[in-house]
Design a protein that fits this description.
Length: 345
């Protein structure tokens, strides 16, 4: 089944949900251009989520996707937190910051009962998940209004698990993809493979639609994925410079720099592997570090350093998420980007 038939769009293109660099404006623009716009909800409070969904429904009649994380909230590890702060303390001194004044709170929350209750009032046609799936009880609530359920897989085992749980489509996230890896059955980075290799494995094994994601940033990439058997594609990095994206000035500058092609998987900014442009902190302590607290707790101590550096126009401590292919990034409207991605279909 083609993605267009599955979700009711004119084009087989999903705009990847990208928490921190977009809001409803990007999703609306993509929807109105014929693609499937997505609203990332993992970093939104219930009030903001309600407001964003109201805005989407007021500005488009097209199907849209809401996306949630499904991680298990971590148990605080005081010793690990202490050693993480010790590692970062020289940077705190450099910026004149107090290492004992790290803000509390978790910046990313998993899909829960409160989110399900709010969604029930809107009944979005598509709901997608990252890091697996929510509990059977919560998933049943989403299915109750007839939503199409999608989720990400980074290995064949994960794809088969998702199919066994009854999802309607699988987003295969290749190693090239920017942002957080959707890994949930393994923590071994060695298990991660490139998009087209994973796409072929999954298509040959499951019987539900498979959507390709990772390294697809232009019309040629979209055409190649569809020719390889994908029901559709999910594109994120190419949208980061679009007019409607909320990508920060520091992040935008990094995407347009010569260093944009040097990306790596890192756990420094959140505690989970995610692909971003290599910056100062990744170079100096390594892109991954055993002291980084569990997801999403690592972000708390990095946050003040990020703010201080960005105030000086530096992305030295910022999560500069990007896939391995930044060639499609353009400062154009999201509508034009969506149409251009589908130009060779």
């Amino acid at each position: 089944m083609d993605l267009r038939e599955l979700v009711g769009t004119e084009l087989p293109i999903i705009q990847a949900p990208m928490a921190g660099v977009q809001d409803s404006a990007l999703a609306i623009a993509v929807c109105n251009a014929g693609g499937l716009g997505s609203l990332p909800c993992a970093m939104l409070s219930t009030g903001v989520m309600r407001s964003e969904l109201q805005t989407i429904e007021a500005q488009t009649a097209k199907p849209y996707n809401v996306n949630f994380f499904c991680h298990s909230p971590p148990v605080a590890d005081e010793d690990r937190e202490r050693r993480w702060c010790e590692l970062l303390s020289p940077y705190y001194k450099e910026f004149g910051l107090d290492i004992d004044d790290i803000p509390e709170g978790v910046s990313r929350t998993p899909f829960d009962r409160e989110s399900a209750e709010l969604l029930e009032t809107f009944r979005p046609k598509i709901v997608s998940f990252h890091f697996g799936l929510p509990s059977d009880v919560l998933l049943a609530r989403v299915r109750a209004w007839g939503a199409v359920v999608l989720s990400s897989a980074t290995t064949l085992d994960e794809a088969q698990w998702l199919e066994s749980k009854g999802v309607d489509g699988i987003i295969v996230q290749g190693l090239e993809a920017g942002g957080h890896r959707g890994m949930f059955l393994t923590e071994e980075l060695g298990s991660q493979v490139e998009t087209f290799a994973l796409l072929r494995q999954v298509i040959d094994t499951v019987e539900i639609p498979v959507i390709a994601a990772g390294g697809i940033a232009d019309a040629q990439g979209v055409k190649a994925a569809m020719a390889a058997g994908a029901a559709g594609v999910q594109v994120g990095t190419a949208y980061l410079l679009c007019d409607e994206a909320t990508t920060s000035p520091v992040h935008r500058a990094a995407l347009q720099s010569e260093g944009a092609t040097e990306t790596a998987l890192t756990n420094l900014f959140s505690g989970r592997p995610a692909r971003g442009i290599v910056n100062r902190i990744m170079r100096e302590i390594g892109p991954t570090h055993a002291r980084a607290p569990a997801f999403p707790l690592a972000s708390r101590a990095i946050g003040p350093l990020r703010s201080a550096a960005e105030a000086s126009g530096l992305g030295d401590f910022s999560p500069l998420w990007a896939g391995q292919n930044v060639g499609g990034c353009c400062e154009i409207s999201a509508a034009r980007m969506t149409k251009e991605l589908a130009a060779e279909l």
